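Students often ask why inverse folding is considered easier than folding. One informal answer: many sequences map to the same fold, so there is more than one right answer. In these notes we will look at a single instance of the problem. The structure comes first.
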């Protein structure tokens, strides 16, 4: 599926859910104590969805990849802070939600990594670099590859003996 808007991306939806849930969590009285933990946790969680959105809107694969890695780093930062919170006795009443949010941040990280891996193996440079001629060439290449795949599959079905490994001589 080709996404036209970052708001339609499943990973962005998960990331925005992470940020909203972190904001709700940090409304707890535990986070009213002095220090930057509340602010840092909020900023890092919001950074995940914001960087996905910004990279998506940039229009080039290289820039999208750069922002995806920043988003993934922010997801790791959120997870690290949750590990820290796990160790604080005063946060014991939050452990269940912290565990859920840790899992959600890890899921975001995995999704971002999978997307980045697929982009790194792609020859598409991004929307900014597409014109009518490059779009037509890309579509033609995709159709040719699919045609070759279907021919190979048909040949394999019609003549499977061609594809068997030769038996070794004794």
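Output (designed amino acids):
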């Amino acid at each position: 599926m080709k996404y036209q808007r970052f708001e339609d991306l499943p990973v962005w939806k998960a990331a925005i859910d992470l940020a909203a849930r972190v904001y709700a969590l940090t409304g707890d009285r535990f986070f009213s104590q002095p220090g930057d933990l509340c602010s840092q946790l909020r900023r890092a969680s919001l950074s995940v969805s914001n960087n996905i959105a910004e990279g998506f809107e940039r229009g080039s694969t290289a820039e999208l990849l750069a922002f995806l890695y920043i988003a993934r780093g922010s997801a790791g930062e959120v997870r690290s802070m949750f590990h820290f919170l796990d160790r604080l006795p005063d946060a014991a009443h939050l452990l269940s939600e912290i565990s859920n949010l840790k899992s959600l941040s890890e899921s975001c990280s995995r999704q971002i990594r999978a997307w980045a891996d697929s982009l790194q193996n792609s020859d598409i440079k991004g929307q900014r670099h597409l014109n009518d001629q490059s779009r037509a060439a890309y579509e033609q290449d995709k159709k040719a590859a699919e045609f070759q795949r279907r021919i190979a599959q048909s040949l394999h079905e019609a003549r499977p003996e061609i594809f068997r490994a030769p038996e070794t001589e004794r």
